Amino acid sequence: MLNLMTYPNAHSKMKSNNDLLDRLFNDSVWNDSFASSRPKANVKEEKDQFVIELVAPGFTKEQININLEKEILTIKGESEKKEQEAARYTTREFVAGDFVRRFSMPDSVDTENITAGFSNGILEIRLPKREENIDRGPRTIKIG
C-alpha cells in the first residue's frame, strides 16, 4: 500500500491508494498564500518504485538539497536571488525564492537506494520498493 504523504499529514491513515493519491497534496495547513513558495509535485507509483517529480524552475541542482532523517524526506531549494523589497510590481504572479517540501516514507520504500536527478527544472526522485513489497501480479496457489 502506498503510504507516501506530505509531512503535515504523515500520520494520517488512508483507506486506499486512490484516496491517498487524491488527498496527498490537499493539506489544510497550506493555503493559497503559500502556494508560490511551495513547488508543485507529482507522486506516482510504479510496479517496483514510487517517483516524486517536483517543479523547480530557475534552480540548479547545486541549489537543491535532499535529506532523509527518521523516515522523512526533506527537499530544500535555496535561491541565490534574494527578493528586492524596494521593487514595485504592476503584476506579480510568481515568487522565486527558497522552498521546503517534506514527505513521509512508507515502510515499503528501500531508503538505502533512493536516487535523484535534475533536468530542465524538474527534480525526479526515485524511491525503489523493497523486494518483498513488489507486486508480482496474480498467481495460482495449489492446495496441498
From TrEMBL:
- Coiled-coil region(s): none
Pfam families, per this entry?
HSP20
UniProt-listed InterPro entries: A-crystallin/Hsp20_dom, HSP20-like_chaperone, Small_HSP
Q: What are the residue boundaries of the SHSP domain, all occurrences included?
A: 32-144
Residues making up the signal peptide according to the UniProt record: none
Entry similarity comment: Belongs to the small heat shock protein (HSP20) family.
Q: What is the protein name stated in its UniProt record?
A: HSP20 family protein
Q: State the species of origin.
A: Prolixibacter denitrificans
